[in-house]
Write a structure and sequence with these properties.
Blueprint lengths: L2 H14 L5 H8 L3 H11 L4 H22 L4 E6 L3 E7 L14 H15 L5 E10 L8 E12 L2 E10 L2 E12 L3
Antiparallel strand pairs: 1-2, 2-4, 3-6, 4-5, 5-6
Length: about 180
């Protein structure tokens, strides 16, 4: 396949589905991932995460987008009003001085900011949170937080955020998210 033809196919595929990864494009076109990356660069097409942020900006609007950008950790997936997923690698800067144990407020920040991002109330505020720390977290562990809206009411949603490290649940928080005064 000619380079120009392949690049046209890349553009067409991404117009149809902007969430396609380089690997998925490579498989579709039977070329290497590196070839797709070079084609994207030549065409000025950003990587999938940047494309996803652009789609989110259109779909969610400015206020929602600010919340998504302010998630503590790396946003992996979001379905507003339903669920969201983030990842955070515990770094040395998060540990208590002289130890390998991560301070609890970093776990809380990951869970709370994801709860704010997933809830569909404007502007979101959290007047009540019930949290439980299940075990300590060590520097270097990867923390995956899943936030799920478990109850809805007018101007109110309850979000359950669970953080896991490896196969262990390390944090669980239930956040009441209300529409604040804007």
């Amino acid at each position: 396949m000619e380079r120009q033809q392949r690049r046209s196919l890349v553009q067409a595929a991404l117009r149809e589905d902007p969430f396609l990864t380089d690997r998925e494009l490579a498989e579709r076109l039977a070329v290497s991932v590196q070839t797709i990356r070079l084609d994207r660069l030549a065409l000025g097409i950003p990587e999938m995460r940047a494309r996803a942020l652009g789609v989110a900006e259109e779909a969610l609007g400015h206020t929602r987008l600010l919340l998504v950008r302010e998630v503590f950790g790396e946003m992996l997936d979001i379905e507003p009003g339903q669920r969201a997923l983030s990842r955070l690698v515990a770094s040395r800067e998060m540990a208590f001085h002289g130890s390998d144990r991560v301070e609890g407020h970093f776990l809380y920040a990951q869970a709370e900011t994801l709860a704010l991002a997933v809830a569909e109330v404007e502007p979101p505020v959290i007047p009540l949170a019930r949290v439980r720390f299940r075990r300590g977290v060590a520097v270097g562990e990867t923390l995956v937080c899943k936030a799920t809206v478990i109850r809805r009411g007018p101007g109110r949603q309850v979000v359950l955020s669970v953080i896991r490290a490896g196969g262990d649940e390390v944090f669980r928080g239930k956040f009441e998210v209300l529409a604040g005064e804007g």
